[in-house]
Amino acid sequence: MYNKRNTLEERIHIVRKILSLFVAVAGLSFGAPTITIIPSIGPVSSSPNYSTYIQNAMQALQSDPTLPVGVGAGLYSRATTPINPSHIIDTTGYFTSWLGLANPTGAFSGEFGNSLYFGLRVVGANGADTFTLNDLIINDSLFITPTVQLRYDTATDTYDGNFVLGVNYGGDGALGGSDDSFVTGGASRFTPVNALFCNCYYLNYEFDPASPGATDAARLAAFAGSLSNYIGGLPSQGFTGEIKGLASGSFETVFTNSIPEPSTYALMGLGLVVLAFVRHRAS
Length: 283
Known about the structure:
Layout: H1 4-29, E1 34-43, H2 50-62, E2 97-98, E3 101-102, E4 114-123, E5 136-140, E6 148-151, E7 164-168, E8 181-183, E9 195-208, H3 216-221, H4 224-232, E10 237-243, E11 247-253, E12 277-280
Antiparallel strand pairs: 1-4, 2-3, 4-9, 5-6, 5-10, 7-8, 7-9, 9-12, 10-11
């Protein structure tokens, strides 16, 4: 017997399934990437292990940025505790140093201090979730008033593979598969990618030991008092990373004016440091 009611219900059921499929496809097509900002302390750019650190940092950003990569002065390790300014001093042109210790020995003997770096990990949900380097905006308020906006929208901003790497997921639609392809080699900033990893060369911070001293160690030690006064007045500082119109992520850095015990770091001494000026490098 022909049942008009059942036929109508079947049609409604079919329409609902079609609508559900459209919703699922729409969700797949317009998913938002996830932006994570990761701080790390590494050697300054004049130090011999700087390039090794950058390579290790990029490797960690692609896999698991919570895990350390490498050893010695080239080690990448995520900063998970409040930053002590004595750990981010650049002594280039003055003397060698490492984590606030003047003229270190062994594996750290040729280094010229440390800088605070920030890595960006921008990961799309699936293969349909694309964006470009040109869409990246960083709103920087660390030591800066007012906030400075950094954009990757000029001809010199490319996927160079050293500081900025793009990834397309391939057929499996997921990061990390054997079918991933890398966008590098100076590819245009307009190249669409599913994931972006940036060890941002515009975002590194360090203090300069410009105060005088009878010895290198005394010069670093002379930094300590005024630095604690300076840092003690700083609130939490940070910045946001944004992919235009799609997603944003933020990070705040908390500074401490306490001097860590020598056991905290293998190369930390008791006489640690203070501010002459803060340098925000562009390269």
